Structures are given as structure tokens and as C-alpha cells.
What we know:
Blueprint: H1 7-43, E1 87-90, E2 93-96, H2 101-105, H3 107-112, E3 115-116, E4 120-121
Antiparallel strand pairs: 1-2, 3-4
Amino acid sequence: MMRMKTRQEKQKCINNIHFDLLLMMLLGCMLFDTVFSLEKIAQREETLIFSDDFTKGFDCSTWKHEITLGGGGNREFQMYINSRNNSYVKNNILHLKPTLTQDAYGKDFIHNGTMDLWGKYD
Length: 122
């Protein structure tokens, strides 16, 4: 035979149901807010902040060469010099072309050469 619940037990059960309903409503609101926010992000249009079509060639007032022997932070020997052999515009397209030091200056230069980062060498 089933025993009758006391008033305290009934109140505790009702409180648990209220808490569960409140928790489900809160989670539902959070889920709705998340989905709504994702929809807003998906609908957002991107804004172009810079563009160059290179119709005027390589514009030195806009573009600058990185000139360094620092290796770009990866501790490798890399030199970046002011050379149009490595960056140039042809048919309105910017071309970036790496050059091996040995190919540009000769094998002997690797061990005995002197480099001026502005494009001159001995």
C-alpha cells in the first residue's frame, strides 16, 4: 500500500519541479540567444578596408619592402632586400618571387661577400 506524502514532501516535490522548469526556461533562452547571435553574425556584411588593383604599378607610397637580415623571427638566415627582382607588378598583378642568395650573388658570396641591405653588394 502506498503511503501518503507529508505536506513537506509535497512542497519539496513542487519546489523541485519549479526549479527544473526554471532551469529549462533559462537554458532555452540561452540557446535561443546563441542561435539568434549566430544568425546575426552570418548576416553581417564584411567591410573592405584596403584594396589595390595595381593598375598604377608598384606604388611605393603604399607598399614598402621589409628590409632586414633578421630571418623573420624564425632564427633562420633570411634576408629581405629592396629588389625589384623579388617583387614587381606585371599586367596589374603583384608578383612575389623568392631568390636564393647563391643564385643572385654567386656561391663565393655566401662565405666572403658583404651585403648592403638596400640592394648593393661587393
